[in-house]
Amino acid sequence: MACTRRTKTLVSTCVILSGMTNIVCLLYVGWVTNYIANIYIKVPMPLPERKLEGDKRGDTLRIMERLDRLENVVNQHIQETPGRGEESQADKSFSDSSLFAHWGQDLSPENRRVALKMFQYYGYNGYLSDRLSLDRPTSDLRPEGCRNLTYPLNLPQVSIVFIFVNEALSVLLRSIHSAINRTPSHLLKEIILVDDNSSNDELKEKLQDFVSETNSQHPGFIKMVRHAKQEGLIRSRVSGWRAATAPVVALFDAHVEFNVGWAEPILQRIQEDRTRIISPSFDNIKYDTFEIDEYPLSAQGFDWELWCRYLNPPKSWWHKDNKTAPIQSPALIGCFVVDRLYFEEIGLLDEGMEVYGGENVELGIRSSSTTGGSTTGGTILLRDR
Ligand SMILES: *[C@@H]1O[C@H](CO)[C@@H](O)[C@H](O)[C@H]1NC(C)=O
Ligand SMILES: *[C@@H]1O[C@H](CO)[C@@H](O)[C@H](O)[C@H]1NC(C)=O
Ligand SMILES: *[C@@H]1O[C@H](CO)[C@@H](O)[C@H](O)[C@H]1NC(C)=O
After folding, report:
1. Which atom of ligand 1 is nearest to the CA of 147?
2. Could you tell me the end-to-end alpha-carbon distance of the chain, in angstroms, rounded to an integer?
3. β 39-40/292-293 pair status
4. 205-217 vs 169-182: helix axis angle to the nearest 10?
5. pLDDT tens digits for 146-193?
6. Quick one: which atom of ligand 3 is closest to the CA of 149?
């Protein structure tokens, strides 16, 4: 929905993983690390030569150019394949690493080494993340007009599910903090953390301490689900859904930051029609500097390879000339919000899926009324390798 510019996320292109038919959207790149050995890169599509119909201001071209640039950045980053070699390679990537292209020039050699190691482990700048506030401000990137909309007071409550494996603790905590800070408290019933068998020690005691501390003030507010073996993205989401009790469930990666007003437009649309599955519009948290890179509003879909793509919004949306209107999409890239019981009625997600990508299209088929694209507020951290 156009007013749900909620989520800044860590990645944003699609990457095909060899040996699998799965598709990775930036949103998910974190997962890739843990399941995949080899990556090959999708060749970016050539830009269309003309403006698409229904687009008076060349917005389409701008959207595509930006997304294309973004893909190139991600691809370049992935080609470095950090962390896969021996020491000598690590030394080489030390000077070459894209981590230091726009950041960290003034770090001491020792700190650069530490930062690079963390980058190789997490796929994003964990060193910087550890030094940023968990409650950092983000600018309100909602489209014009969203701030003027009002919402009913009796919206349904939501359970937010974060799934992760070996996420940097500070990145996970920032996701949780922003969810708490930027969701009206009467609408946020609980937060569910699904740890898909992380091995990182940070995510054990320290995370448990945070959960216990929070729950001592708000009993039962954070629920922890830990997998005794790695189950993958899809079964992790379903585990989170099983633990949820609010009427609406929001399934998110754990490298996001919510923005103001992200929840209300989504909950309103689900309240109006429970068969809607909603994805907010995402901006990008840059993997190296953690700056927020605003994304154009777009629909979400897939190409002939079932590869996830951001799409130019349909003509009918342009004709409304209303940037706050939701954009109807044939599929969903990544995180989404759904009526808890409706999700069960349509069969959840196929728990036979091992990684991800397939569910984007699957959900579009299961539900005839998925809505993607823009609503207000968040960011995702760009993460890959
Ligand atoms: C939003 O409301 C303000 C104050 O009422 C008004 O000045 C402004 O024009 C409105 N903006 C839009 C896009 O409707
Ligand atoms: C992760 O999985 C392994 C085996 O698959 C298991 O031995 C280990 O205890 C699990 N770790 C956690 C934290 O559950
Ligand atoms: C724009 O779209 C929003 C959200 O659907 C709606 O509430 C609003 O009334 C629309 N504005 C106009 C001028 O049509």
Report:
1. 1
2. 30
3. unpaired
4. 20
5. 999 999 999 999 999 999 999 999 999 999 999 999 999 999 999 999
6. 7
Cβ partners under 8 Å of residue 109, min gap 6: none
User: What's the 265 CA to ligand 1 centre distance in angstroms?
Assistant: 18
Q: How far does the centroid of ligand 1 lie from the alpha carbon of residue 266, in Å?
A: 22
User: Half-sphere exposure of residue 59, counting CA atoms within 13 Å on the CB side?
Assistant: 18
The residues, ordered by sequence, that sit 6+ positions from 260 with a Cβ below 8 Å of its Cβ are 140, 142, 182, 376, 377
For atom 12 of ligand 1, which residue has the closest CA?
A: 145
Place of tokens 């397939």: 358
Q: In the predicted model, what is the mean pLDDT of residues 208-218?
A: 96
Tens of pLDDT, residues 277-328 = 999 988 999 999 999 999 888 888 888 888 778 889 999 999 999 999 999 8
Of 72, 67, 18, the closest CA to residue 40 belongs to 18
Work out which ligand 1 atom sits closest to the CA atom of 145. Answer: 13
Residue with tokens 């299961």: 366
Backbone angles phi, psi at 160, to 5 degrees: -100, 125
Work out which ligand 3 atom sits closest to the CA atom of 326.
Answer: 5
* For ligand 2, atom 4: residue with the closest CA: 229
CA of 164 from ligand 2 middle (Å) equals 14
Closest CA to 123 of 85, 80, 187, 186: 80
For β-strands 256-258 and 378-380, DSSP reports them as antiparallel
Amino acid letter for position 188? L
Is the CB of residue 146 below 6 angstroms from any atom belonging to ligand 3?
A: no
Which one of the ligands is nearest to 4 CA? Answer: 3
Whether 324 lines ligand 3, by a CB cut-off of 6 Å, is yes
Question: Domain 7-380 has what CATH class?
Answer: alpha beta
Our measurement of the distance from residue 56's CA atom to the centroid of its chain's CA atoms, rounded to an integer in Å, reads 30
Q: Is 375 in the pocket of ligand 3 (CB under 6 A)?
A: no
Burial class from Cβ neighbours inside 10 Å (0-12, 13-18, 19+) for residue 152 reads exposed
Q: Say what the pLDDT of residue 65 is.
A: 58
